[in-house]
Structures are given as structure tokens and as C-alpha cells.
């Protein structure tokens, strides 16, 4: 009997790549179009990981749904314009991420992504770094409700053929931890992103990695050793 599929689902922004500068820049531009003072960058970083409408709703809770959807649309357009005009900063992989993905594959893990990005945004960043072929399942805000709803994690498990007890949700925000727990998966926080380790633990993280290279050890042994 083949061993069970072991699935590691990664968040993108703040976990795989450091994209905060571009997210903040596009959000500031969107606010300026509405003649609103943009929130501090620290506040913008707090909502990274949420789907876009939920993110702007969290930033402007006093505004109505029409405003939230208009601001979200302007953010998407601002990001696209900045990219096409080559005005975005590099969005580097965090230190050790590429090697860690390859090591997990060598250890028999199946990899996926669950992100508040759009399909287009995720495809661009994975292609840019040449890592798209590492992942067998890609779940985005285009097809799912916002984190912490478990929809993305559940869809990733279904597509990969993995059970919750053999799945880890890896992310840098409390939204990722809550989503993983809601899906019945292990919640693995990373300390190099946009929420503090204490917040990840409060949201249900089973463990918090301080370096990407420690993830294979934290996630467990080879499949043959675990079966």
C-alpha cells in the first residue's frame, strides 16, 4: 500500500516572497485615487494575506461595501500599472526558501500554495522565480473566500489527495494559522513575515520556524520513515 500523501501548503506573500514594499506602494496609490490619506505601512502589512476586498475593509471599516470594492479594483489596477511600467521593487524569495522547497520534494512532500493573491499575481511571481513546477496545487482568492475560511486549504488537500492529518499549512500570518486549524491541518508559522511569532501562536500555530531551512526538520521524517 503506498504511503499517504504528505502535503505542505505555503502562503505566498510574507512566506515565500517579500512583497511588502510593492503591496504598500499599490495600496497608497489606490487610496490617493480616492483622495483618502493612506494608512501607515505598518497597518497595510497587517492585512497582507487577506483577500483584497477583506483587506481594504479591514483598513477602512467606516466605509461601505461600494467603497471597499472600488478601492480593491483600484489597487489591482495600480499594481498592474506599476508592474507594466517596471516601477515595482524586486520581490525576492526569502532566504533559504528555494533550497527548502527542493529539499521537501526530495523528502517526498507534495507542495501547494494558498494565497490571497489573484491567479495572475501568483502565476507571475512563481514564474519570475522559476519555482512554479514545484507546486501541484495553487489556490487563490479568485476562487475562494478570504482566509481564515478553510476553503483554500481544503481544496488544496482534495486536489493533492492528502488528508488533513498529513497536511501542514505554512504561513506568516494569524490568518494562515487559523485557516490551517479550521481545515484540520497542522499550522506551521514562519517568523520572517508580517505577523509576530506570538500572534501566530495565539492563532493556533503548532510550531514557528525561525529559518526556512529548519522547515523540513520541523515537518517531520521521510515518508518511508513515517509510514
UniProtKB/TrEMBL annotation:
It holds the Pfam family HAD_2. One of its GO terms (biological process) is DNA repair. One of its GO terms (molecular function) is phosphoglycolate phosphatase activity. Gene3D superfamilies: HAD superfamily/HAD-like, Putative phosphatase, domain 2. SUPFAM superfamilies: HAD-like (SSF56784). One of its GO terms (cellular component) is cytosol. This is Haloacid dehalogenase. It comes from Sphingomonas lenta.
Amino acid at each position: 500500500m503506498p504511503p499517504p500523501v504528505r502535503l505542505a501548503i505555503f502562503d505566498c506573500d510574507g512566506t515565500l516572497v517579500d512583497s511588502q514594499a510593492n503591496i504598500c506602494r499599490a495600496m497608497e496609490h489606490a487610496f490617493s485615487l480616492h483622495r483618502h490619506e493612506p494608512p501607515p505601512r505598518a497597518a497595510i502589512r497587517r492585512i497582507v494575506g487577506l483577500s483584497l476586498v477583506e483587506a481594504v475593509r479591514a483598513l477602512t471599516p467606516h466605509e461601505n461595501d461600494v467603497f471597499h470594492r472600488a478601492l480593491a479594483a483600484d489597487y489591482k489596477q495600480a499594481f498592474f500599472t506599476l508592474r507594466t511600467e517596471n516601477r515595482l521593487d524586486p520581490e525576492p524569495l526569502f532566504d533559504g526558501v528555494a533550497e527548502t522547497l527542493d529539499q521537501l520534494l526530495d523528502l517526498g512532500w507534495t507542495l501547494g500554495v494558498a494565497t490571497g493573491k489573484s491567479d495572475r499575481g501568483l502565476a507571475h511571481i512563481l514564474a519570475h522565480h522559476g519555482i512554479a513546477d514545484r507546486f501541484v496545487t495553487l489556490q487563490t482568492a479568485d476562487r475562494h473566500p478570504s482566509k481564515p475560511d478553510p476553503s483554500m486549504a481544503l481544496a488544496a488537500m482534495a486536489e493533492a489527495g492528502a488528508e488533513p492529518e498529513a497536511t501542514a499549512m505554512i504561513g506568516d500570518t494569524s490568518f494562515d494559522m487559523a485557516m490551517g486549524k479550521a481545515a484540520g491541518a497542522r499550522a506551521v508559522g514562519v517568523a520572517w513575515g508580517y505577523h509576530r511569532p506570538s500572534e501566530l501562536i495565539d492563532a493556533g500555530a503548532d510550531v514557528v520556524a525561525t529559518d526556512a531551512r529548519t522547515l523540513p526538520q520541523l515537518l517531520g521524517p521521510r515518508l518511508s520513515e513515517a509510514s
